[in-house]
Specification:
By secondary structure, the chain is mainly β. Helices cover 12% and strands 37% of the residues. The strands form seven sheets. Strands 1, 3, 5, 7, 11 and 12 form a six-stranded mixed beta sheet that branches. The chain starts with a helix and ends with a strand.
């Protein structure tokens, strides 16, 4: 009888222990919810939910994107070098400058933060205090109102890193700007990189080696030299990305070294693995002044809704001979010759584009590509019409050609016409611009290293090579 009572007592004791443990775990979860903390598994679940809600206009995109129609002329570059990509060196005094206009013309309170990403621009599992020294968010404090312009606007500017926010890790980052106290409603996001030079990249750009690509594609041949920097498993721990000009849609991802030779990792493929469409020299137009017609301007006038500029009709260059001239590889330079301060005294102008084309293309769309459209486009097959991109052109049957109108700030602009197949994310230049292996392009080789046991990708090299 005593043994039976003893066994019952033990079973009751074990049951009580299990019940107490379950209550403690639930209490800890409730405490986290109350305190506003989110565990890493919960962060992953939230990320999945956001991916499933990709058509939400406020959905956070880990790319260069403007979410508010009145936000325009977003420029992000290394301080002192307006045409450079947003890349700075870790541990130096280099800084990045963000500038943007709000066409509503009033003062708004904006906040900003930065988010760390892996080599493929997915959010990492790091807490913000693991990669930020200082405040995890701050206010955009510098602003100026437009002066003596038809279009009222407010210009905001920001410099990072600064005394309130600095970076403690290298790698990929997203800069997010949002209304005061509303981080879930971004107005813009911009990619930038912090490089921690540990390895050396040496490369050249040449005509593609495969015979069928010889006259239409360019080949980026390069090697990574590790020196004294230890990489135990290059095929597993290294991620290499090659970017053409400032485009992300056609970037090459996941390149593996063709050969290991001492301290050299050889990426000099000759089978087409590392090739890009060569494209053509960028088209251009100059609207720095509204007092005279520059080379590419057909007409301009001042109407009730502002200044209008009609560009000369463009030509299809797919079969025309290659002509070389200087360009700025799709970038833009905000500048005015009609006033002293280009930032707040430049006018906004309606710019009309026209591309003669006998019949509309099927299976895709024609886009204006470059910094003037933020290098963004989306095909109708994989995005709602409202997100098809500011540079998507419409076919005019009466004029027999493609047309588009953009609202741009005075300056000098580069652009190309690209064809984007329905449902695709990579644009093609062959249809309108043609591909000429002689075209001048700039390529950036990015080398990421994830050490064993680490939770982030360190950016150990960012080298620019050109032809």
């Amino acid at each position: 009888m005593g043994s039976i009572v003893h066994r019952l007592t033990m079973k009751f004791f074990i049951f009580f222990i299990f019940l107490f443990s379950a209550l403690m775990v639930q209490a800890q979860k409730d405490q986290k919810v109350v305190s506003g903390q989110t565990s890493i598994p919960e962060k992953k679940a939230k990320t999945k939910d956001r991916k499933d809600n990709n058509f939400d206009p406020a959905f956070l995109r880990y790319t260069d994107c403007s979410y508010k129609e009145s936000i325009t002329s977003v420029i992000f570059h290394r301080e002192g070098w307006e045409l450079t990509p947003p890349v700075i060196t870790y541990g130096t005094d280099e800084r990045l400058v963000l500038s943007f206009d709000d066409l509503e013309g009033d003062y708004s309170v904006w906040q900003y933060t930065v988010l760390h990403c892996d080599a493929e621009w997915n959010p990492t599992d790091l807490w913000q205090n693991e990669y930020i020294d200082g405040f995890t968010d701050d206010y955009v404090r510098d602003y100026r109102f437009s002066y003596n312009t038809l279009q009222r606007f407010t210009n905001y500017s920001l410099v990072v890193p600064n005394e309130n926010l600095n970076f403690t890790l290298s790698g990929n980052y997203i800069l997010k700007v949002y209304p005061d106290g509303q981080p879930e409603n971004p107005i813009l996001t911009r990619r930038f990189m912090v490089v921690e030079p540990r390895v050396t990249v040496k490369g050249v750009v040449k005509a593609a080696t495969p015979v069928d690509l010889r006259f239409t594609h360019q080949e980026v041949q390069f090697s990574v030299y590790t020196g004294s920097y230890k990489i135990s498993e290059p095929y597993r721990d290294l991620k290499v990305v090659v970017q053409q000009n400032s485009r992300w849609d056609n970037a090459l991802w996941g390149l593996q070294p063709m050969m290991l030779r001492g301290e050299e990792l050889d990426y000099r493929y000759t089978d087409g693995t590392n090739t890009f469409e060569a494209g053509n020299e960028f088209r251009y137009f100059d609207i720095k002044s509204l007092r005279y017609q520059s080379e590419r301007v057909r007409s301009f006038d001042n109407r009730t809704d502002g200044f209008h500029v009609e560009l000369q009709p463009d030509k299809n260059r797919a079969t025309t001979p290659y002509i070389t001239y200087g360009d700025i590889n799709g970038q833009r330079l905000i500048k005015t010759e009609d006033a002293n301060d280009a930032t707040i005294e430049s006018e906004y102008v309606w710019v009309d584009f026209f591309l003669p084309y006998a019949t509309p293309v099927t299976g895709g769309g024609i886009y204006i590509m470059g910094a003037l459209t933020e290098w963004q486009f989306a095909a109708p097959g994989n995005s709602p019409a409202s997100a098809s991109g500011p540079g998507r052109m419409e076919y005019n049957f009466a004029r027999q050609g493609y047309q588009a109108r953009l609202y741009l700030k005075q300056g000098y602009y580069n652009y190309l016409y690209a064809y984007l197949p329905d449902g695709a994310t990579k644009a093609e230049t062959a249809l309108i611009e043609g591909n000429r292996f002689e075209a001048k392009n700039s390529y950036t080789v990015l080398v990421y290293h994830r050490e064993p046991g680490s939770r982030y990708d360190r950016l150990v090299a960012a080298e620019v090579v050109g032809n």
